[in-house]
Design a protein that fits this description.
This protein is 13% helix and 32% strand. The protein has 241 residues and is an alpha+beta fold.
């Protein structure tokens, strides 16, 4: 899964990287983006131009009676997108890219004194520091009153099975799309589910690197750059894979 990520690059840099217009809404740099936060999403309009907008993280389907439905839909499994009605509609023509500087996962490194899993947060990013393009889906929600004057745009991160690099850390990972896949993924005119789902593969092994970070990342109120600084756990005994 993907439950926390980093969005700290300036909007102008994000726009240049994705060949999109600079977003009208500027979100603050956040090194601990959590579900229900507003996040940048890249999507394609009717004129084939790319825009960057602020979407609510946690997909809220059009049929939802309550915004809280999105709390359970921060991720969407790539293997079943075309089978579940909740995601099938969005897969057809509401696809996006979610820019991330990196993301966090919690690796089991042993057991606590009480026998519970002991977890170490890991920060995962590209070795070259460039942005990651997570595959996403988005939806419009008009609220329980179906009010078109108050529409919420929401999104979810598409995940897949872990590659060999990620497997020792977590059994799932976001789908990261390379630039040569962006045009097809973003084009709302592309509706071939077989073609679209063929893009949703685990990332190449060399795409990512990881290091331990301070457990304070577990508190969503902490959002600063110190969260991604390499951290040496007490009594270092980690097998980082």
């Amino acid at each position: 899964m993907c439950g926390r990520f980093v969005s700290a690059s300036p909007p102008g840099e994000i726009a240049a990287y994705f060949g999109a217009e600079v977003p009208e809404v500027e979100l603050p740099a956040n090194h601990n983006v959590a579900p229900t936060s507003d996040v940048y999403a890249v999507r394609e309009g009717a004129d084939a131009s790319r825009s960057i907008e602020a979407f609510h993280w946690g997909l809220v389907p059009m049929w939802a009676k309550d915004l809280k439905v999105g709390n359970r839909m921060i991720n969407a499994r790539s293997e079943t997108l075309a089978e579940k009605n909740t995601f099938k509609r969005a897969l057809a023509n509401r696809r996006c890219l979610l820019p991330a500087d990196g993301f966090y996962e919690w690796k089991v490194v042993g057991k606590t004194d009480k026998g519970k899993p002991k977890k170490q947060p890991m920060y995962i990013q590209r070795p070259d520091g460039e942005l990651l393009a997570m595959a996403g889906l988005w939806e419009r929600w008009r609220g329980p009153d179906r009010d078109w004057d108050n529409v919420l745009h929401s999104t979810t991160v598409v995940t897949t099975q872990a590659n060999e690099f990620m497997a020792p850390i977590h059994n799932r990972m976001p789908v990261f799309l390379s630039p040569d896949a962006w045009e097809v993924w973003l084009d709302p005119e592309v509706t071939d589910f077989d073609l679209l789902t063929s893009l949703l593969k685990p990332a190449p092994e060399a795409l990512l690197t990881a290091h331990p970070v301070d457990p304070m990342v577990g508190n969503v109120r902490n959002k600063g750059a110190q969260l991604i600084v390499p951290f040496e756990p007490p009594e270092q005994s980690l097998d980082l894979g």
